[in-house]
Amino acid sequence: MKKFRCAIVGATGTVGQRLVALLARHEWFCPAALLASSRSAGRRYGELMRERWQLPLPVPEYARDMPVLAADDPAALEGKVDFVFFAADLPPEKARALEESYAKCEFPVVSNGAASRLVPDVPMVIPEINPGHLAVIPAQRERLGTKRGFIATKSNCSLQSYVPLLTPLLPFGLRRVKVCTLQAVSGAGKTLESFPEIQDNVIPFIRGEEEKCETEPLKIWGKCEGGKIVLPKKPPKISAQCLRVPVSEGHLAAVFAEFSQSVSKERILAAWNGFSGEPQRLRLPSAPKKFIRYFEEDDRPQPKTDRSLENGMAVAAGRLRGEGNSFRFIGLSHNTLRGAAGGAVLLAELLAAKGYLG
Ligand code: NAP
Fold first, then answer.
1. Would the CB of 71 count as within 6 Å of ligand 1?
2. 336 Cα–ligand 1 center, Å
3. High-pLDDT (> 70) share of the chain, %
4. Any idea where the domains of the chain sit in the sequence?
């Protein structure tokens, strides 16, 4: 099979590095261009990353001699790539304008950023949960005046630690959710070494994160109607608190869920155990075999031991307890894999399997 050629915009950042590494031996995709800001443009990727590479494996060989290009000229990629992974960190208006300029040059854009997530005709997809939202793409193409180009996004990284666990519980009359996220430093594009303020500390504020945690799930649980995503009429009410903690990778969520009816621990565990979706049915290359894994041990899941479950693409759960209509549990997911680069690659695989990259 001929591979799709992709560009990575923001290839020098935390998420971009993960993409560079994940795509080194991908079955369907091959990176053909690496892009970043004008500060990095013109240098060889390997040389530029000598001081900045954050991953335990070396920079993949294919990327070492690739030139880093400036991201502000999408037309320069015409004929060279088939689609774009977007992982540049820019103010929202600039990010949305740049994503749209790639789409208007007829590139499908798979974005990690927040700028376009709540636009009604932009699908924001967790492939196991709402693959049907890709159906808004023709309406978006019409708005943008494109034949091929469009933007699809993944959700915020912290959502991946609790929305996959709440979704199979919606049929039980999920009414109210309180969630406290304990988020790793890589979510801020940092390492433990480059973030001295986090040593021996917790920072009780992450700008914009609580709003995203409360609103993005509602779009994910929405319906595709008339070329846009319509929010559910009576969604569960979510309130969130988000904390930055001294952990390198892995966002943990402490969740309190209230239902309109009585539920049992057995029914919740059965719902989690049986939950899978299109990525598993289509056997997409990055799909975890088992999306949700429940740990019986009282002290699991933990970021250090459990974030890399199924190459960092599965969601871990534990400490389920409660009775009647009120339950508590812990969720965990790898923020730069399932929550960012891996989630974007899985979304691109879904788009390829459904014919949107062709
Ligand atoms: P990061 O480590 O700060 O990297 C930022 C990247 O953006 C770098 O490649 C940087 O290039 C590039 N960039 C900055 N200004 C630019 C410009 N004017 N034009 C083109 N490129 C520019 O950020 P990150 O953590 O990887 O996050 C990237 C995006 O993913 C953000 O939107 C973030 O919200 C989202 N995200 C991150 C995570 C996570 O866990 N980190 C999870 C989900 C989503 P230079 O090196 O040249 O400056």
1. yes
2. 12
3. 100
4. 4-156+340-353, 158-334
Would you tell me which CATH number, out of the four given (3.30.460.80, 3.90.1720.10, 1.10.10.10, 3.30.360.10), belongs to the domain 158-334? 3.30.360.10
Match 């971009």 to its residue by tokens: 16
Nearest-angstrom CA–CA distance, 147 and 286:
28
The per-residue pLDDT for range 282-320, each reduced to its tens digit, is: 999 999 999 999 999 999 999 999 999 999 999 999 999
Q: Is 37 in the pocket of ligand 1 (CB under 6 A)?
A: yes
At residue 1, the pLDDT reads 75
Q: Which two tokens stand for residue 302?
A: 């933990």
* Pairing mode, strands 292-295 and 315-323: parallel
**Can you give the C-alpha Rg of the chain in angstroms?**
20
Closest CA to 19 of 340, 254, 357, 282: 340
d(CA 298, CA 207): 32
Fold of 4-156+340-353: Rossmann fold (3.40.50)
CA 10 to ligand 1 centroid distance, Å:
5
| pLDDT tens digits for range 208-255 | 999 999 999 999 999 999 999 999 999 999 999 999 999 999 999 999
